[in-house]
Amino acid sequence: MSKLKSQTVSYQALCNEASIQLENHPQAKQENQYNLSSTDYKRQKSFQGDRFVTQLKKNFSIIQENKLESQDIASAQMALEMLYKQQILEQEPIFESDSMQFINQSGFQYNQQNNFNIHNSKIYNSILIDHKYFTISETLSNYYSKYVRKIQKVPFKVLDAPQLQDDFYLNLIDWSSQNTLSVALNSCVYLWNAQSSKVTKLLDLHNDSVTSVAWSLRGPHLAVGTKIGEVQIWDAIKLQRVRTYKGHIARVGTLCFSDNVLSSGSRDKLILQRDLRLKGNYFLKQSAHKQEVCGLKWSPDGQMLASGGNDNKLYLWSSHKQDKPIFRLTEHQAAVKAIAWSPHQHGLLASGGGTADKMIRFWNALEGKPLQKEDTGSQVCNLMFSKIENELISTHGYSQNQIVLWKCNNMKRISTLVGHTCRVLYLAMSPDGSTIVTGAGDETLRFWNLYPQINQDFKQLNGPLHIPTIR
């Protein structure tokens, strides 16, 4: 490398270089879909990708560089590129030679140019730098150290939920986009307002029991599946039943919305598709599973439906070819109830197996190919991707009854939460993605802070840990 005439580093050039690399990198475009040219507001709303490079570019500038003989602009570019690959593309650094030089901690001093609201920024919960690979000035490290996420090991709220059933095949809680939690307790459904903590009784079936609940993606409608095979639609504002669908001859254990389409899975082995705008009980009947359908999830774009069954099978259905599955995935060795689509990477699907399997598997749903698997050591009851980070939440049954937060790129356990004394069969997430609620056969609902800074206002409004009843 030719010797540089000046030791002064142009930080603006480095950030521009990183931005150009990000825009031209095909993996960033296709898999992570980052958009560094969008506004701060759009970036905060989308919750996609780590904004370290762009946020640093906006809020900090280098005011001084200590002249170190072993460091020049090339080493700075190399280190910044490594940071970009590790933090945004989540790739492990590749060391091409033992002589690679890194920026010393004393090499740069940073000056904050303008203030920003750290509570509305995603940076607070990111471990920005792995110091094995890249180091920055102590000033910047200390500034962000206060906002490194610390997940509490105990729930910040517990609700008593009498008669919450201990049944692996049911789905009895769901959290709406309007911040209302629905909870099915035997023959009744209760609504818990997360803002006011007010509990409202929505319905009582008397001679039947509720086996599944699911909120529409927008609006106040709640779908309720029953033991005798009915699916009812309720208006949660007017507290009135809008419609009743028939078609199943056994319990409806799973429900899932995609826009105006409602999918239901039953113990009768069938999947029925209903359009809330059309008359009739259903417009499509799908038959592939040999035992009870216990898991249903539509992809975020509404193009694919994943169904899991007690026959240990995971099927993928296309919205354009609905008569039969486009892929049949048979690797699981137990019932497949836990299904989740990634909101961060198009076509990435996760599934979990029951007691005899204990595996979390990742799939390329676009091609029907397996990607990765992880033995969790216990029954996988639920899976859900974080809305904020590229992380996965799993809940478990026999034998550990735990909740686990995973880093998706390497399936490293970030945190393990325990407290339930029975299988953690039910899982739902708040609209802002900061909080999860879990339910179990111990008849409690427990609320956990996964992203404490975002959830600070929620805690202040609803108070500390206490155990009121849900009804």
Polypeptide structure, described:
- InterPro entries: Cdc20/Fizzy, WD40_CDC20-Fz, WD40_repeat_CS, WD40_rpt.
- One of its GO terms (molecular function) is anaphase-promoting complex binding.
- Residues 159-448 form the CDC20/Fizzy WD40 domain.
- WD repeats lie at residues 203-244, 286-318, 417-450.
- One of its GO terms (cellular component) is anaphase-promoting complex.
- The protein is mainly beta and 471 residues long.
- The protein has 7 helices and 30 strands.
- A 4-stranded antiparallel sheet has the order 3-30-29-28, with no helix packed on it.
- The longest helix has 15 residues, at 73-87.
- 41% of the residues are buried.
- The model is unreliable at 1-71 and 95-147 (pLDDT under 50).
Reconstruct the topology from this structure:
Elements: H1 11-24, H2 26-32, H3 40-46, H4 52-59, E1 60-65, H5 73-87, E2 108-112, H6 138-145, E3 157-160, E4 173-175, E5 180-185, E6 188-193, E7 199-204, E8 210-215, E9 221-226, E10 231-235, E11 240-245, E12 252-258, E13 261-266, E14 270-275, E15 284-287, E16 293-298, E17 304-309, E18 314-318, E19 327-329, E20 336-341, E21 348-353, E22 359-364, E23 369-375, E24 380-385, E25 391-396, E26 403-407, E27 412-417, E28 424-429, E29 435-440, E30 444-449, H7 456-462
Antiparallel strand pairs: 1-2, 3-30, 4-5, 5-6, 6-7, 8-9, 9-10, 10-11, 12-13, 13-14, 14-15, 16-17, 17-18, 18-19, 20-21, 21-22, 22-23, 24-25, 25-26, 26-27, 28-29, 29-30
Helix pairs in contact: 1-5
GO cellular component, one term: anaphase-promoting complex
GO biological process, one term: positive regulation of anaphase-promoting complex-dependent catabolic process
InterPro entries: Cdc20/Fizzy, WD40_CDC20-Fz, WD40_repeat_CS, WD40_rpt
